[in-house]
Amino acid sequence: MAATAVASPAIAQSSPELKWRMPTSWPKSLDTIYGAAEIMCKAVSDATDGKFQIQPFAAGEIVPGLAIVDAVQNGTVEIGHTASYYYFGKDPTFGFGTSVPFGPNFRLNQAWWTQAGGDALLNDFYKKYNARGLLAGNTGCQMGGWYRKEIKTVADIKGLKMRIGGFAGRVLERMGGVPQNIPGGEIYQALEKGTIDAAEWIGPYDDLKLGFHKVAPYYYYPGWWEGGLQLDLYVNRKAYDALSAENKAIIEAASAYAHVDMQAKYDARNPAALKQLVAQGAKLRPFPADVMAEAFKQSMGLYQELNTKNQNWNKVYGDYARFRSDQNLWFRFTEATFDRFMQAQKL
Amino acid sequence: MAATAVASPAIAQSSPELKWRMPTSWPKSLDTIYGAAEIMCKAVSDATDGKFQIQPFAAGEIVPGLAIVDAVQNGTVEIGHTASYYYFGKDPTFGFGTSVPFGPNFRLNQAWWTQAGGDALLNDFYKKYNARGLLAGNTGCQMGGWYRKEIKTVADIKGLKMRIGGFAGRVLERMGGVPQNIPGGEIYQALEKGTIDAAEWIGPYDDLKLGFHKVAPYYYYPGWWEGGLQLDLYVNRKAYDALSAENKAIIEAASAYAHVDMQAKYDARNPAALKQLVAQGAKLRPFPADVMAEAFKQSMGLYQELNTKNQNWNKVYGDYARFRSDQNLWFRFTEATFDRFMQAQKL
Question: Using CB atoms, which residue from B249, B286, B323 is nearest to A43?
């Protein structure tokens, strides 16, 4: 038998053949998001009897939370778990990997990535950063954040100092608001002191832990800038290309497994958290129609500017926008009608 | 080195260590559903360098399409891909694995299975059939079928002869309709001749291929009996227990991968198919409000009966209904509002 000639893989069962380090953008307290990173790593180890081990790290442990793409690009680490839109300052095209204002929801994001242009177009773009992207989780549609005062009309956005991330901040700015960049751990105090008027974080499950409802009770929806916030794994191209075909298949399937698990966790945990928030005084409000309309108009304006200014953006946006348009046409029929009926029942 | 002592796995790289046969309930023409079976098998083979091979078979090739659970139960095959509700005649509890009328949509089904009682409760039930179930695909919310004449009121359901599957047929019967069991390949002719008045199949992508719109142009939505039709892999318990921990992890992740891929395929393909159907004369109609209300009332009545008559059903239903209720409360806020806004835009 040819056993001895190919025996080397068997040796490694007692110690890993391959050890990767995976920095993330998350504190461990974001247990659903950091949990997706852990679940992905465990799935890879389980599928290989520990021969391929990936160790996750919280933000800042080995790499700053917002420098994951850089660390993957320059080969400091083999893989990282992050939200691509944190890197929109390098190029706004990164936004598509996570979410752009009025982009697709969870289902459409997943379908665009898997079956339309997403994977191919974005991975072509990620090559410039020596990275291979993999679908790895989603939060679902986020909430629109916490406000000290009610937002009754689009005029109330003028001068509003709001903690809001990258891309959405640009839209808020076009609406007359003042976007602020504040780390998660400092938001509560800034809201309490009135240094800022509003802040967006994630959704009920994560927001409850930080207690924003105690200092800014108006809880708006929907989070139009994050209709389905997708997470990304970035693998260094050289490290990826060096993987065996089995290990490539294993990290791809493990990512899908973590992707399903993360969305399911948010869905399972948000309802109870929302009930608690409301019981503790959170006041749920939909954004006024003129706020939504203006935000939409300003977003589309921004995209048109980017289409003319940025070739990378333009290359992805056409496919993305066409897909979103076709999908929203179809989804308004059976999916939306079924959901609306169910949501109207006393169950 | 300990190489020679543990060399046997390495030998097998040239020929599979493990070969399973996987009958399915699908003709190959249902390329999205049968495709999920193929993708799952390929993912397992790819992750093991061909050491673990699962061969999919179309319905009837080695096992009749509706006898998958039986074949898994008695060990004729190690694994099968099917929709659990086909077996509701054995026990209606099987319905939860796929879809029951007014059950959860794709997101809620996935969340219930993965993070609430689904996996644990149903796998406890499947033990009676020597089977371990795995999440393996979804069609999304189906359409409500094709009708020769318009349905203007719930009175039009009286006497309606409709091709409709198992559980939904019981509800239709309670509404005065006459459910018919007709294989997919014979529906067109039955509609054309008027032997039946209506038929439900899946959604635009699959329905277009069978051409029902030419003989029954009224295309209703939503498919209230299939708000998110989930597919199942059943693994024979003995075969499952004999798997190594790695292979258990590999089939679990491969199922999740196929699950994501299948829903994404339906989402990506349905919009173009719907456009074609409408261009070829299909007349899209929402079910009248009184039809929906009566179907809901009769479904809840049926569930209450089953709660008192069937212990297995009762054990699952409580958890399922509570989860559905909590979820529909939460989803009406940010998710539904975001989707409704997007669907109302001219994009």
Answer: B249
Q: What is the pLDDT of residues A150-164, one digit of tens each?
A: 999 999 999 999 999
The total of other beta-carbon atoms located within 10 Å of residue A193's CB is 9
B235, B258, B233: which is closest to B24 by C-alpha? B233
Q: What is the per-residue pLDDT for A15?
A: 67
Residues of chain A with C-beta less than 8 angstroms from the C-beta of B345: 102, 296, 328
What does the pLDDT read at residue B166? Answer: 77
Beta strand pairing status for A283-286 and A218-221?
parallel
Each residue of A278-317: b (16+ CB within 10 Å) or e?
Answer: eeeebeebebbeebbebbbebbbebbeebeeeeebbebbb
Q: Does B137 touch chain A (CB under 8 A)?
A: no
**Does residue B108 belong to the interface with chain A, where contact is any CB pair within 8 Å?**
yes
The per-residue pLDDT for B1 is 33
Task: Grade residue A243 by pLDDT with cuts at 50, 70 and 90.
Answer: very high
Q: Say whether residue B340 is in contact with chain A using an 8 A CB cutoff.
A: yes
The pTM for the full model equals: 0.94
Task: Give me the residues paired with residue A218 across strands.
Answer: A147, A283
pLDDT band at A3, cuts 50/70/90? very low
Buried b / exposed e along A320-345 (16+ C-beta atoms within 10 A): beebbebbbebbbbbbbbbbebbbee
Cα–Cα nearest to A92, from A176, A25, A169: A169
pLDDT on residue B6: 40
* Token code pair at residue A295: 């935000």
**Taking a contact as any Cβ pair under 8 Å apart, which residues of chain A between 211 and 230 contact chain B?**
221-224, 227
List the single residue in B with minimal CA-CA distance to A48: B246
**A250 vs A52: CA distance, rounded Å:** 10
Tell me how far CA of residue A106 lies from CA of A112, A229, B113, B292, in angstroms.
10, 7, 18, 27
At A33-67, the pLDDT tens digits run 999 999 999 999 999 999 999 999 999 999 999 99
Q: What domains, with CATH codes, occur in chain B?
A: 15-139+226-289+313-347 (3.40.190.170)
Q: Any chain B CB within 8 A of the CB of A327?
A: yes
d(Cα B249, Cα B263) in Å, to the nearest integer? 22
Q: What sign for the dihedral angle of Cα A101, A102, A107, A113?
A: negative
